[in-house]
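Page 47, continued from p. 46.
Same chain as before, 307 aa.
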Amino acid sequence: MNMKFINHIIVTITLFFIGNGYSQSIGVYIPDSFGLKMNSKRIVENKLKQLSTKNNFSINNSRFIVTAKIDELSNVYDEPFFEYELGVNFYIGDGLEGKAFESYYVEVQGKGKTQKTALRNALKSIRPNSELKAFFDNARVKIKNYYAQNCDLIIQEAQNNAKMGDTHGALISLSSIPKSQKECWVKANNIAVSIYNEDIEFDCEDKLSQAKGAWSANKDKYGAYKATKLLSRIDPRAKKCFSKVKNLHSEISREIGNDKANVLKLMNKELDNKAFMTKKMLDHHLKIELAKAKNKPNTTIVYKSLY
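Result:
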């Protein structure tokens, strides 16, 4: 495979990983003490997601969260309707440190034949306004300032995560850096390339070791088939390791000889297919991996309350 093309793929995909400057990521978090019954959490979560996305925040796992505390000012049942009057406190801040950056308070009313319907109608009455927009805009500025002031720390933590085997976590941490923080973003981009390359090198060495074991155990067409299946799963961008893959492939080819043409044909086809995988396929693969990492449940992050 042309090395210039390989390097182009690496740069393109890495830019995909952390080229997210158009929308700041934020997590939605509702603590157990948010003010209403637990079965109402979903309604509140959905409202927070709706308001956040309308204000150009993307919803993903993030150290920064939007949350709410709801105070029940009055609750009247006038058959057949429930009527709520609520004091809703919105907060955005650092969920890992438990530090609020911005807050916004509004009082709302809702009416419905069930308590859930009354709550939903009350929250629906929260409409976009200048104060709510300022709440999100001011929080965005403070989040960007955090990255400007803590760039080196974020990168160091990502590198530590990668060393402990958490490549996904490291890349997601780096991907949270806004593109508007150009200097930090460039540093993160370079580290992301390094982390991803180290990961595929490690994976290559692991699969190569398994393939060598399979071939050593059975130096026949069955051992050749098993070894080649493992080799075909190796990413050809593992520059340091892939030459060893080719050497083992050549050794197996010599050993089984032309009388095993079908096996040799299969081996060449599988290895070549991997080596000449298209950019589109590589992009698709890495997008899936990134999505898996970003969409891990928020229970993997232990947040502190902002109030």
